[in-house]
Amino acid sequence: MTNHGDMDQFGDRLDCGAVRDRIPVRLLGLLTRVESDEMVAHLARCEACREEEEFVRRLQCAACEPPMHLAPRILAAARTRPVRRRRGWLLALPAAAAVVLALGIGVFWNGEASQEFWTLALEPEATMRWYGNDWVVADEPQFHALPDEILRQILVELGP
Amino acid sequence: MSHERSRPKDLDDTELVRRARDGDSEALEALVVRHQGVVFRFLLGFLKDEDRAADATQDTFLKALDRLDGFRGDSAFRTWLLAIARNEALGMIRSQGRRREEALTDAEGLSDATLGPDEVAVQNEEVRRVREVLGRLPEKQRLSVTLRLFDGLSFREVAEAIGSTEGAARVNYHYGISRMREWLNDESR
Q: Which residue among B28, B41, B95 places its CB closest to the CB of A63?
């Protein structure tokens, strides 16, 4: 049982905004002891935040768990998958081809996005250019994340 | 024996990734078991269908495993995994076109797998209601709520996962919670 006298040593250092930010994390047991005790001190004094905590607890009960067979299914598929040759976005495209690629992404993005379109346009085993690693996640380019400056650079290199 | 090998489930992600790269199947299993929940729930937030979310979760992990060498450790493994998951979801949504418009009614399908005996009907009805209102939220609010509420991701991690800013992730989370409260209270009257 919590000794309210002990809680007083923390005072109430947190405002309601900070407490409500942390409520789900505290209920998941992810706060440190000190952080949790600070929360408890505030909750002891704030009915509105206690109600928020109760509501969040209610919501957390509805967490959807993955099917029990999912992990075994993933691991089985991992064991039997063919060894992939990395297509790679390590490339040295001629400038014109790079622009075609960049523009082509815009054309295909909202339609039938074709993995084959990308791979046909690329030469694997080449030197990375323009995109660097920042716009590539797990070998997939994040074209939607390419900043305007990079796209402008591509157009400049293409020339007039 | 001078060194006792730690159990995979006790190791952090960095060490598990290193071992998985070396072909350690137990490390691989530990990574899958540890992160399948957050990936599945995140994808469910996008796709609003448990079967599709399960398929996308599998594809996410397989893609991550194929490209494990490319994980540079600049971000948390979970964050990197969710970025892959997001791409998977967007790819599935694009390839299946306007099925997203059915999302509001699809949200009710989330509860089908949880229906049980009569003695837990009340609890399951509550779960169904919560999931239904969660499904009504706009996508970024739904994803922010899902990641923060069920998996305790920091707002920074949420922002990275959904392609937003930390401040926007926080706002989306609180707006989402607030709207869910309104809807659930309205339904109670």
A: B41
How far is it, in rounded angstroms, from Cα A91 to Cα A68?
41
Contact A131, A89 (CB under 8 A): yes
Instruction: Measure CB to CB from residue A75 to each of B29, B110, B151 and give the nearest one.
Output: B29
Specify the pLDDT at position B116: 55
User: Residues 82 to 141 of B: which have CB under 8 A from any A CB?
Assistant: 83-84, 87, 91, 94-95, 110, 113, 123, 126-127, 130-131, 134
ipTM computed for the complex: 0.79
Give A85's DSSP letter: P
> pLDDT 10s per residue in chain A (160 long)?
444 444 445 556 789 999 999 999 999 999 999 999 999 999 999 999 999 999 999 999 889 999 999 999 999 999 887 765 544 444 444 544 545 555 554 444 444 444 444 443 443 333 344 444 455 665 555 656 566 766 776 667 666 6
Q: Report how far residue B42's alpha carbon sits from residue B39's, in angstroms, rounded to the nearest whole number.
A: 5
Best CA proximity match to A87, nearest among A65, A113, A119, A62: A119
> In this predicted structure, what is the pLDDT of residue B70?
84
CA angle A93, A98, A103 (to 5 degrees): 165
- Dihedral (CA of A32, A34, A35, A40) sign: positive
Instruction: Give 3-state DSSP helix, strand, coil % of chain B, rounded to 5.
Output: 80, 0, 20
Instruction: Measure the CA–CA gap between B107 and B100, rounded to whole angstroms.
Output: 11
Cα–Cα distance list, B119 to A62, B109, B116, B140, B188 (Å):
17, 21, 8, 35, 21
Decide: helix, strand or coil at residue B7.
Answer: coil
B4 vs A46, A148, B1, B23, CA distance in Å?
49, 52, 7, 19
From CA B34, how far away is CA A129, in angstroms rounded?
A: 35
CA distance B47 to B33: 21
